[in-house]
Amino acid sequence: MKTLKTQVAIIGAGPSGLLLGQLLARQGISNIILERVTGDYVLGRIRAGILEQGFVDLVREAGVGDRMDKEGEVHGGFEIAVNGRSIRIDMAKLTGGDTVVCYGQTEITKDLMDARKAAELVTCYEAADVKLNDVTSDKPTVTFEHGGETCQLECDYIAGCDGFHGVSRQTIPAELRTEHETIYPFGWMGLLSETPPVSKELIYSKHERGFALASRRSATRSRNYIQVSLDDTVDDWPDDRFWEEFKRRLPTKAAESLVTGPSIEKSIAPLRSFICEPMQYGNMFLVGDAAHIVPPTGAKGLNLAASDVSTLYKVLLRVYQEGDKKCIEQYSEIALRRVWHGERFSWWMTNMLHNFGDMTSHGMDGLTFGRFMESELNYYLASEAGQRVIAEQYVGLPYEDLTT
Fold it and tell me: How many C-beta atoms lie closer than 10 Å to residue 343's C-beta?
């Protein structure tokens, strides 16, 4: 058996694992990343592109913000349209200057991969049969198969950044974890295209035919979504049908400026809210999708992963720089506080903006629930105070520091 040693073993080479590894390495804390698939496969995942200020600051602290700062678009607001009537949420004005950055998750991942390679940090792609062992001891290990060899990675701590279907969460005994889950009765059909976006800012559109989101990756690349049935498949939505339906759901001005084109990528994503408590077991910490999933309506998935990274980074810095191992007990409590806020906001936005039709929801028929949610949305959009509630949560709540 081949033996490797490091201070922090990171399971998963998505953006959260890569970001944590880069931050730790810059502080002299050694880490090795294990990833079950290839790097090309990781880069092929099409995900969110709205970054809160806290995430932007972390990327800069990790030393990989140059391309993001050059190519990313700063957004000071977004639109919410209700049956064709549009309201702009002026985030910068309502929050005292806070904004978000539009920069694709794929681009963030590529920047982090390039930085890790340049720093000659170890990433084991296509690591199979990964098992976390003795995580409640002072010397946990990770065993895995790589390059035809059986390997054992000795470490002090394990960061489980391996997503919803990864091994990290399952390492916590079932009787010691509580999982909260809501499955929504619809999905999002997403289409990526080399076409100019319909707007310089995102448009969230509530329509009697269903929800739509006009998003963007750059001035020449669009990422657009429509609410679809869970029974639908990508084959049910050829490009022409998607564009026709998307246009119907947009407010008139945006629909008139829509430029269509062939898809680069199409996919249907089911929507769920999920939280695992606790996010820590011994010296193993869950990060990002390994611990929580949000519907994408509030643009919180990647950003909640970033706040997890920030908290764990602070914990590990204190451990290695000050010798304070007691502080690791703060991780789950601090991380979960922000996770629950993000989950609630995403759930709230999803309920207000989607059409539940005749589907039963929250103990009432979909029509009644839909009327309640339309009333709620109208209430919040009608005043500056209500819009501020939306804006403050959209730009991201502050990161919490460790207690002394």
Answer: 23
